[in-house]
Amino acid sequence: MAVITKIDYGPILQRYNLTVNYIEEKSRNVVKIYTQKGVFALKSIENVQDLSFIHHIGEAYNKGFTRFIPFYKTMDGEFVVNQHNKYYYLMPWLKNEPPDERSSAYQQLFKMLGRFHTVTSEELTYNEEDVTQHYKAVKEKWEKRMEYLEGYIDRCENKLYMSPFELQFTTYFNEMMQASQFAKARLEEWYGQIKGVKKFRTSLTHGKVSINHLLYDDQDRAYFTSLEKVRKASPVNDIVSFFYRTLRTYPIQSEECVGYYNEYNEHHPLAEEEVQLLLSYLTFPEPMYRAVINYVDAKNSKMSEQQSVANLVRTYWLNKNIEFVASQILMQEQQKKDQKLAEELEEETLE
User: Fold this and answer.
1) Which CATH number fits domain 102-350: 3.10.310.70, 3.40.20.10, 3.90.1200.10, 3.90.850.10?
2) Which pLDDT value is given to residue 7?
3) What is the dihedral of CA 20, 24, 26, 31, to 10 degrees?
4) What is the pTM of this model?
5) Which of 46, 59, 230, 351 has the fewest CB atoms below 10 angstroms from its CB?
6) Could you tell me the strand order of the sheet in which 20-27 lies?
7) How far apart are the first and last CA of the chain?
8) pLDDT at position 103, please?
9) CB of 198 closer than 8 Å to CB of 271
10) Separation between Cα atoms, residue 328 and residue 248, nearest integer Å
11) CA 2 → CA 21, 86, 178, distances in Å?
12) For residues 6-17, b (16+ Cβ closer than 10 Å) or e, as one string?
């Protein structure tokens, strides 16, 4: 752990009227500051355009969501300090140890995420041309990827001897195509449904949802941190990115992730068309496609043959883990529809 001299950050910390005992570097953009007034986190960001998240956090506060780690103002009332070609902002230093068992921490995470999306939710009447353009763009991008993979497997199978990577790819190809077709079918379903409701929801999204981005104060109250990616988008984006990171592991049927999804829906129920959009984004085998591209484009790849094979296997595991979660979500949605239909038929019978 590197110790940084006071003079590096002296002009910045003076703006907050802090007397510094010492400073520890925690990462490239985070330093821990020990002062006479307590312990603080000083974070930095390089691009001024990325500071828009501060405005979004203020918007969330005004709407009633306050579970963000607060920012301290300088003595002259500013949230950021421009120094050394970077923008710095000061926050309290909180612990990252959940008070209860880890499963409860994940439930807390999705409870907070659902409330965050609900409080900042905005329902908009969509521009049909924009929605159609988005649908066509995503569909065309996926179709081009599938065409590329189909061409690549032809080249592999026409070789007298395949490399270990190519051989591994051919064993996965059919499942990749099945995942692609499933994702396209969900996209088609979303497009048909969104044209019917003629509205869509946006929320402020965290952008980097992770259990590691949930910190706790002395009273064990949880707060979101790592807020630099907060922006307005479809709330399903946060769920997709979380599953992508969490399920990137060894083969596992993650009932826990299904439970997290259900916890989220308790606090921010997704509409039918939003579920279809979630499933389409989640299940398209983009990581496997990227693994192939990185291997074929050897000029930009720093991985050996063995490393490339291992990378492909890991993306395949991710795809299979996602497949299980997606199948459970789809099954639950079908059960909801069946139950609703049964209730409607019962009401008609009683009438």
Assistant:
1) 3.90.1200.10
2) 45
3) 20
4) 0.89
5) 351
6) 3-4, 20-27, 30-35, 38-45, 86-92, 81-83
7) 73
8) 66
9) no
10) 18
11) 15, 20, 49
12) eeebeebbebbe
